[in-house]
User: Fold this.
Amino acid sequence: MSTVMAIAMAVVMFSAQRSFPRSVGGLREWVIGLVGLILASVLFALNGLVPSWLLLPVANSVFLWGAGMQMIGTQLFYGVRSSWWLFHLSWLLGLVVMGIWLYWKPNFPMRVAMYSFLMLALTFQQFLVIIRFGERHLSAWFFAALSLMLSATLLHRGVMALQAGGAGYDAMHGGPNHSMYLAVLSFMTLLLPVGFMTVATRCLQKLLEQRSNRDPLTAVLNRRGFAEVHAQENLRARRQGTPLAVMSLDLDFFKAINDRHGHAVGDQVLVDVAGVISSALRGSDAVARFGGEEFVVLLADTHQARAELVAQRIQFALRQPRPGQSLPSYTLSIGIACQLDPAEDLDSLLLRSDRALYRAKQLGRDRIEVACEALAMPPAPVLPVARLYT
Assistant:
């Protein structure tokens, strides 16, 4: 039954690996590891049909090989340097163990002890990686607990095997300790892949959330992500009585850049300006691309004076020569709107900052304008005109 469930988990992991080949590391190695464990189970089932002197070394080495690939997969998942030396050392030492205590000096308890310690080295290394690099989340704790449980069982089995007769003298009648080990190992064949898929699913969830909230070209927030950040900051501002400010930024003559240099260069300009804007902000601020060449910045706990200072800093950075910069020069027009009232919503702030931006465009571009109070603003249809900023 464990083998059948391992086949099912291998299919699930293989499907996930095909769907997210580069997003989640280690899935391919875990699939290969499960295939190794499945193959080892098939080989063990052939006991009696194939001579033991040939079957046991191959089956046990394949089993160690599969467990080692799972360890490698976990390391790749967490971005840790792979311990290939431990992987190869484990299954090669498995062959040495067989050569000594199966052929030269037949001793089943010693063979059990040595194989248990080799498996322990692989599973405990996996446990250490999860503890050190894993996210502080229930999924990682569950995965770590399973690895630790298997490690403790292997340690117990190895120590008991070193005692006289503690592990029994054959694979099928090894006493209660041996039976407990076989039961735990059978369950872990299923539970460890489940633990890994739990942390992998958590990673995929965060990845999908990030993709839904980020602009794929510039990696800054998109409109949806910006709205979520504003909602959080607005609640904090209401509780603490701190001000908010919004900046609307638009590239000047961006259409001319695309026409003259091509859209590929235009995309590079968008990535560059996103980086320049981000470098001028604090960690509590947020920048988003609303489409085309329009960017929006949320400045938390910011009065008008600081908002203007940030805008000036951005324009100053754009005017400075940057070594190795092969992009065409460009400028930004910026409109600033400070929250008039804690009850003012995001749409109102964006409308006023857009109007200030439009005024900056009308007055010559490459400049900063601050929005007046909402009641003093003319009810001009700004948003359609904003599409003609270039």
